[in-house]
Amino acid sequence: xxxxxxxxxxxxxxLLYLIYGKQEVYRREAKFSILTALAQLKRGESLCxxxxxxxxQDFTGWPVETLALDEQTxxxxxxxxxYTHRRKACAIAEGLKLADKTLFVDTDTLFLKSPHRxxxxxxxxxxxxxxxxxxxxxxxxxxxxxxxxxxxxxxxVSASNGFKLYNSGLCGVCDTDTALLxxxxxxxxxxxxxxxDIHTIEQVAISFAMRGKTVRESSKWVHxxxxxxxxxxxxxxxxxxxxxxxxxxxxxxxxLDVPQVKPMPSAWQRLLIKWKLRNQRKHxxxxxxxxxxxxxxxxxxxYDVCRQGWWESASREIRGWDEAEQKKFFGTxxxxxxxxxxxxxxxxDEQAIVAYLHQRRAQ
Length: 363
Hints:
The chain is α/β, with parallel strands linked by helices. The chain has helices at about 25-40, 70-80, 85-95, 115-120, 135-140, 145-155, 180-190, 200-210, 230-245, 250-255, 265-275, 280-295, 300-305, 305-320, 325-330, 350-360, and strands spanning about 15-20, 50-55, 65-70, 100-105, 110, 125-135, 165-175, 215, 220-225. Helix 1 (about 25-40) links the parallel strand 1 and strand 2 (about 50-55). This is Glycosyl transferase.
């Protein structure tokens, strides 16, 4: 796996990203994550950032070392069972060789504090993961986890003696953890043979390999927005549309102008919206909330471009209804506001919302 740049001497710390494919949205995710990491550095702090990618040219001029991935490597990392996220575990395993401490970062991650605060949590036998999600005893009886449960029984794991499952949006390990990653990759291969019912097997395998060890959470220092991508993708597209992708100190400074949370109305506005929808049926409450939240988002140029994220949530809900329910909701006049719902705070949004919903319904 050749590097496009001569690698620096083995550093004590490295921030490691994996990105492949041609989708612009993931390139923007990675670059914006890197900007937030650099923006949070304290005076005198430096950072080794490495990007494993099949498109190293996308990072020309950026303060990163790129490690070029070819098709053969990506295919090998995916393994024989076709599990895409196996590549992540393989990237971490490969990265262990390059630094004393490695912090692997999913591209949909924002740094709220200096990355060095997270590196301080990593030590031999002490790991960092994004955040605790659930205990095995909580999910072991869910239908999509039953097959995995049969594999875990072979390791003596049951509902009564389970383990904690962590989100692996961040994964902090040491160069002495080769055996841990080898174990995780072997488990992935065993658990994905034939077929698999869940797509987070990679983070379950890493969590299982860390069972009995000290695992620290990093969510205090980062924001992993995996469930809120539609908002952040819109804001990042706007950011790079305004400022371009050519790296420079001004780009690092400007990234701090972008909100680090999704657009939410004020607590008072949320309470008011809840009160206005109090008599609606459950499915209409969800649609009404999302439509009105988008309209009541705080004034901010970056929030202005992602209000449709809320409306898209409502649109998906509506498209899941049967045809009779949809016709009842929209009524006979295509441009009319749905009579079941209270009107948005901004009257100009009425036509914009209705037009958006009709457009999405027709697609």
